[in-house]
Amino acid sequence: xxxxxxxxxxxxxxxxxxxxxxxxxxxxxxxxxxxxxxxxxxxxxxxxxxxxxxxxxxxxxxxxxxxxxxxxxxxxxxxxxxxxxxxxxxxxxxxxxxxxxxxxxxxxxxxxxxxxxxxxxxxx
Length: 124
Prior knowledge:
Blueprint: H1 8-11, H2 15-29, E1 33-38, H3 43-46, E2 51-53, H4 55-64, E3 70-74, H5 77-86, E4 92-94, H6 103-107, H7 110-116
Parallel strand pairs: 1-2, 1-3, 3-4
Helix pairs in contact: 4-5
């Protein structure tokens, strides 16, 4: 899943202009566009979401709506990647913030995770 970074002209727009442009795009594209918003997104993002939910619900929604050619996934990389895997080839999954990462990814290194799976002697 590759996409180009957001052009600078959009990064410097004020909130009211961004809001207006998003609404115009949604009207113009109609059912070809769906905006998916994860529960934890801030209000200024989630207000544009057509569907809100957890990552699994949103990825399933994207896959179940093949008429949506453009899927804007307001979440983190793995969520958008999941939707990209589940959708058809003609659907384009877009992650608006390419820097969106998941803190859980860095919370427990693999070696500590594997060690946590070891059954303590007292439970054997």
